């Protein structure tokens, strides 16, 4: 009866491994986390947001630098306003008088009549080509805009860091869920083998006239029930695999490399060694202080508060005057060409000051102040949320650790009870219902122990994420 002797030790063997199992698990999950950091789509999108914020900061800083631009215009006009000048009407009478005087002296006339003139305000053809350089000298809004863009970049980067922390937690939890589902499948499969053996033994006993047919049918029904349970657990394994591969942005049916499951209590002690104590003894306030100092969400909300404050400065700076310097050099005329009468250069010092906008700037400043107030309220809310998350994670880990010893004792007791029941069954001195009850108690205890030990590891991953470790 090798199978019967192996069944009660399934979970004990899976729980063993010591430091080697811890190192094997740590290395395996570290490798998968590295893959997730490189391939996860949402994290890559967050990285793109950071690069966009960096580009916006570079743009804000570049506004201090000069701008050189080339502009060219060529126009053809028809119609438009004209101005008539009666030059002929004014000058021709005098010219005629002079001509008459000359003729009287025997000289030929010298002055011809002049036509009246009509001046068009639009040239028929005109071009203006210029190279312009502008340089801000005093522009308070630029500095305020740089501060706002810098704070926005910090907030965006912190948001990416916060998502990365959540991704690390989700990858580890998903891997643990897959390991737990596989371990549960082993327990159910072992129970199925045991019930198959029980059905065979009962069939032999029935054939020899030692038991009635109803006991054989009960054994068969129990085996079919476990087969159905095996199908459900197998589906859970597949679902856990699919979700894990989804986080790593891989084909959902990609095989996952298994690892030895570390001893839960030893793994907790190793992972929380930096705190100087285990999760059962360290004070909640100390955990909260560490989380407030390490969590990226705190950095993110602090940066958002700075960005909101810079937004107020931007709106205020828009009410101040700006001074800039500009140079324009180019050519003008009816045709393209260089030389006197076409080349020109202009140097300008420009002052721009919005003296009154009848409440527009004041309203924008008020809106920016409301944004700052909202960000400060959000900072308090985030701080409280982190404190609550840390306490809940620590309490769950403590509860799981406290339950682990009870679950293990229950599993050992059920294993011993089943061992005795199996011997009685082989000797034909136990009722079928008692043997099946002992088998059900063992499977339930093993599944509970498996759930509890993995629950400790999951709660540890959640606490480490809550602490920002």
Which structural traits does this protein have?
elongated, 4-stranded antiparallel sheet, two-stranded antiparallel ribbon, disordered N terminus, alpha+beta, 469 residues, 12 helices
Q: Could you characterize the architecture of this molecule?
A:
Helix 6 (140-207) packs antiparallel against helix 7, helix 6 runs antiparallel to helix 10 and helix 10 (296-317) runs antiparallel to helix 11. Residues 1-18 have low confidence and may be disordered. The protein has 12 helices and 6 strands. The chain starts with a helix and ends with a helix. A 4-stranded antiparallel beta sheet has the order 1-4-5-6, with no helix packed on it. Strands 2-3 form a two-stranded antiparallel ribbon. It has helices at residues 2-6, 10-15, 18-39, 41-62, 87-104, 140-207, 213-247, 264-271, 284-294, 296-317, 360-427, 432-467; strands spanning 67-76, 82-85, 117-120, 125-138, 322-333, 343-352. 29% of the residues are buried. The radius of gyration is 44 Å and the shape is elongated. The protein has 469 residues and is of the alpha+beta class. Helices cover 68% and strands 12% of the residues.
């Amino acid at each position: 009866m090798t199978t019967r002797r192996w069944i009660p030790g399934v979970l004990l063997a899976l729980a063993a491994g010591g430091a080697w199992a811890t190192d094997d698990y740590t290395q395996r999950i570290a490798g998968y986390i590295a893959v997730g950091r490189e391939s996860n789509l949402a994290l890559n999108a967050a990285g793109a947001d950071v690069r966009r914020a960096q580009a916006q900061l570079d743009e804000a800083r570049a506004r201090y630098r000069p701008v050189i631009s080339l502009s060219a215009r060529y126009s053809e006009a028809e119609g438009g306003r004209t101005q008539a000048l009666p030059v002929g009407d004014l000058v021709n009478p005098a010219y005629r008088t002079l001509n008459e005087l000359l003729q009287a002296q025997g000289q030929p006339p010298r002055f011809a009549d002049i036509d009246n003139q009509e001046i068009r305000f639009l040239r028929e053809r005109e071009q203006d080509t210029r190279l312009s350089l502008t340089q801000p000298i005093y522009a308070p809004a630029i500095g305020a805009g740089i501060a706002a863009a810098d704070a926005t970049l910090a907030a965006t980067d912190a948001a990416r860091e916060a998502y990365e922390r959540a991704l690390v937690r989700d990858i580890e939890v998903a891997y643990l869920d897959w390991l737990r589902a596989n371990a549960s499948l082993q327990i159910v499969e072992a129970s199925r083998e045991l019930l198959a053996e029980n059905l065979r033994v009962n069939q032999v006993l029935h054939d020899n006239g030692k038991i009635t047919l109803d006991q054989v049918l009960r054994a068969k029904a129990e085996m079919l029930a476990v087969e159905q349970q095996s199908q459900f657990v197998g589906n859970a394994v597949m679902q856990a695999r699919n979700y894990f591969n989804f986080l790593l942005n891989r084909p959902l049916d990609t095989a996952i490399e298994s690892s030895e499951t570390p001893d839960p209590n030893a793994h907790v002690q190793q992972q929380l060694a930096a705190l100087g104590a285990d999760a059962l003894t360290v004070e909640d306030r100390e955990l909260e202080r560490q989380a407030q100092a390490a969590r990226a969400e705190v950095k993110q909300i602090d940066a958002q508060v700075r960005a909101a404050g810079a937004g107020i400065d931007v709106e205020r700076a828009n009410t101040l005057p700006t001074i800039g310097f500009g140079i324009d050099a180019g050519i003008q005329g009816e045709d393209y060409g260089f030389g006197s009468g076409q080349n020109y250069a202009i140097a300008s010092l420009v002052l721009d000051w919005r003296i009154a906008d009848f409440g527009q700037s004041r309203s924008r400043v008020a809106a920016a102040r409301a944004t700052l107030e909202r960000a400060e309220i959000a900072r308090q809310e985030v701080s409280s949320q982190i404190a609550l998350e840390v306490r809940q994670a620590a309490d769950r880990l403590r509860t799981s650790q406290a339950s682990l010893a009870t679950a293990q004792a229950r599993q050992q007791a059920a294993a011993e009870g089943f061992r005795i029941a199996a011997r009685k069954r082989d000797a034909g001195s136990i009722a079928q219902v008692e043997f099946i009850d002992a088998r059900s108690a063992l499977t339930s205890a093993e599944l509970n122990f498996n759930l509890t030990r993995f629950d400790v590891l999951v709660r540890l991953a959640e606490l480490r994420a809550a602490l920002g470790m």
